[in-house]
Fold:
Amino acid sequence: MKNGKLLAVVPVYNEEDIIEDTILGLKKINRIDEILIVNDGSTDNTKNVVENLNVKTINLDKNYGKGYAMNIAITTCDYDYIAFVDGDLGLTSSEIEKLIYPVISNEVDFTIAKFPEAKTVTNAKGGFGFVKGLAKKGVYFYTKKEIDTSLSGQRVYKKEVMDIMNYIPNRYGIEVAMTIQALNGDFTFKEVPVNMSHRYTERNLKGFIHRGKQFLNILKTLIIMFFRR
Structure:
């Protein structure tokens, strides 16, 4: 088992009702050396909640985007391994432990969480698969590898994988961009089944607007990556 500092990064935006449970889940994992919350300009009570969680916190003055929040940790923090965890996992965040050990034991260079299918989750109503389909096809276009987890925000990387990434988009394209760059760097990876749960975007106007933004952000990311080749 390799030694080295493991940093867990939790980018959050308006997660006042669940962020405490997410952090409690992470605190159950002894192998995590430091937890960092990057509060991406939340407009609810998230800032006050996280101040009482006894973890390192960075509060941004406005909402810059998930990728921007993650990049602050990537570029300013000291770590040998870095885990990314979404703020809405609640106590199921403890499942990130399953992603940690394949990396720190040198089995693979990075891991990505594979969630249960939405249809197997009680009352889960996601979208129609357009965003996931775009992400999967985009990753295949650039890497010729088919993976199911290109959108998953739950990941663990070795520092050397992060060091080769020269494009971190500010918003929803972050996971796709990281996946493509890591795969093209010939790093080994593993999709790890987990029993995590998080908020599913509902099939209403607000949900369709959210997924529309995701789709456009990912499409923009894929286009930018084409011209950066």
Residues 205-228 form the longest helix (24 residues). DSSP finds eight helices and seven strands in the chain. Helices lie at 19-27, 46-50, 66-76, 97-104, 130-143, 159-163, 174-184, 205-228.
